[in-house]
Amino acid sequence: MHKALRLxxxxxxxxxxxxxxxxxxxxxxxIVCEGVNDPGVTAFVSVGRVPVLAVLRAEFTALGMVWSTxxxxxTPIIFGQGVDLADGLRIDFxxxxxxxxxxxxxxxxxxxxxxxxxxxxxxxxxxxxxxVVCEQG
Length: 137
Known about the structure:
Strand order of the largest sheet: 5-4-3-2-1-10-9-8-7-6
Shape: globular
Number of helices: 1
Oligomer: single chain
Order of helices and strands: HEEEEEEEEEE
Structural class: mainly beta
Number of strands: 10
Distance between the termini: 50 Å
Helix content: 10-25%
Largest sheet: 10 strands, mixed
Strand content: over 45%
């Protein structure tokens, strides 16, 4: 019978940090969306290209207001959950308490060869929902 190895949390955190720092780096990408007929509605999501959706930073604008994971001049949000599938993106951001979903971005994408596109809905809960057209880079 094998006995589980238990490490103190500090040792586990240090080992994890060293492994993460020495792992090969992966490219990053962006998802940029703009409101259909409303250029004041925008979504910017920077992601790491790893086997899971890794949101590095994000910012959303609508009605002259800003929600952001990084800007101090915005309503703060935190990446909650998400998935980037072949047919679209589903992503949720919460408030700082992680008690409410504040922003959702849902897209559908279809491509045939090099032709295609991505569009969806950006929802700021309690504020509104807007159709958006998106591009990945």
